[in-house]
What does this fold into?
Amino acid sequence: MNIQSQPVMTTEEFLRWNEGREGKRELVHGRVFEMMINVTRGHVKLAGKLTAILINALDESEFDIGTADFGVRTPAGVRYPDVFVDRSGGTASDLAAIEPLFVAEILSPSSLAIDFGEKAEEYTTIESLRHYLVLSQDEPRIWLWSRDEDGVFQRPQMIEGPDSEIPLTGFDLNIKLADLYRGIA
It folds into this structure.
């Protein structure tokens, strides 16, 4: 990540400033950071499969599902997760989720520490969020943070192997790793 030479911004200033710009960047503690835009085929396929599974499983009248081009506000600024689920009901001109319920990041060598560190911290403080998912792009292995019945995020659960399932209890949904990783790992 490289720091951009932009002045400190608020979340709303950043969303308007960033609209329509080429490249990818996030806002963290008022500073703009340039992000990786070149990803592997495995990354693209995994993001696409996860998005398709969620679109097919969830009711589109209740949920909006999308990928990395739509913002999620965090206590530190604005992130662009690889896959997200938002409560439907926003406007067509929104630039960020209104009530994010699920976010997923796909690991790359450059994002490992951030996805498990500051992003996990930021995402799990979003009041509406039910699940934060980190996916390996090389093998059927994921890490899942989920809120319990008391609304508290539990320590991440590592799930691995093609016979395993991801329990997204907040949506009453289980995703088979074999389906998610078919043709990828």
